[in-house]
Amino acid sequence: MSIFDFAEGREGYYGQYGGTFLPEILAATIEELQDCFASCKKDPAFWHEFIDLMQSYSGRPTPVTHLENLSRHLGGAQIYVKREDLNHTGSHKINNVMGQGLLCRRLGKTRVIAETGAGQHGYATATMAARFGFRCKIYMGAVDVARQRPNVFWMERMGAEVMAVQDGQKTLKDAINEALRDWVTNMADTHYVLGTACGPHPFPEMVSFFQSIIGIEAREQIQKVAGRLPDRVFACVGGGSNAIGIFQGFLDDTDVELVASEAGGLGPESGMHAARLAYPDASVGVAQGYKTYFLQDDDGNMKETHSIAAGLDYIGVNPILVDLWEKKRVRFEAATDEQVREALQLVMRTEGLIPALESTHAFARAIEEAPGMGTDEIILINQSGRGDKDIFTIADALDDQHWKTFIKEKAIEYGA
Ligand SMILES: *Cc1c(COP(=O)(O)O)cnc(C)c1O
What we know:
The protein is α/β, with parallel strands linked by helices. The protein is built from 15 helices and 14 strands. The strands form four sheets. A six-stranded mixed β-sheet has the order 3-4-14-9-10-13, sandwiched between helices. The radius of gyration is 20 Å and the shape is globular. The structure holds pyridoxal-5'-phosphate. Residues 91, 93, 120, 196, 236-242, 311-312, 356, 358-359, 384-385 line the site of pyridoxal-5'-phosphate.
């Protein structure tokens, strides 16, 4: 099975999901991008250039680590972790961003723009732009700019302009709308570096293509360290790029169960979550250039979402994953904020790892399922990023009084 087998006669569609829904004015630009990506995809030299760059610049291949203490503690399956946290800039986002940097150079464009919520994608894009010598503008909701000062600081030091978006709720979806407006105005010299496997074709396919490096490495590594393929693979799902990245290594291995973990927030009854498929609150719609399941009301207005992890707090989801879910190849579950807090503490104490709050959603599901599995069974978790960025959120969530006081004092000092 290849995820790139489009629905019959409909390029860019996965089942009934995906597509390209953009203003007519962008038609030539998106076609240029589709053509450039299609020729890069066919060219082995392009993939080699990408691999070389990721090895020399970001430390790939990232290792697979056996978590013996956690496995023993839970008394079930043997747990292994794919370490995307060890990438430069601290997450898998750099895989996609560097790939699009190479592509941008082939397109002959000299300026990049990107949207960002928690700042991780903006941070990675600013890094790439500095490295490639592109001008760079990052769109970020004003609320997020205030919440994520350290990321804004680094982006600006690396030469990017950070635009605080004042529209709507002043968060991620408003930043995406503003980035699309910039693209319409400046498409001649500008490439839009979308941060996840969502949006109009070719972005879901293109981002998945670059993130497939995770699954390709992991499939080989787990056989080396564990002696065989895993029984279950867990990944968290925001837009769905790290999940489709690792899942692609195992799609044809029908005995390997693929489990996606969404943001359950305050739980299924609360309305305060970002679970598009694990909970029944979302429905099919068209927005932000593509067709998928969105958390929206009956009139198609987007609902507010909530998660302890800013990177999972999004209204839509990767159309390729929706198709795989409908075909029963990927099982969708959710982890609540509370389960994530507990899982994070357990992983830190038993293994000395600090997964990002996003990645901890994958750990939380694995921790729930591992005790019910045999000790000869194998779990592989994708640790999409490291938790250093979450220090204040985690201190707050774990109710660490010392740090909470410190943060409050700092906030007053900075006038927040
Ligand atoms: C952004 C982010 C995510 C969510 O994005 P996906 O496209 O769903 O992978 C997950 N983990 C980390 C560490 C992130 O920074």
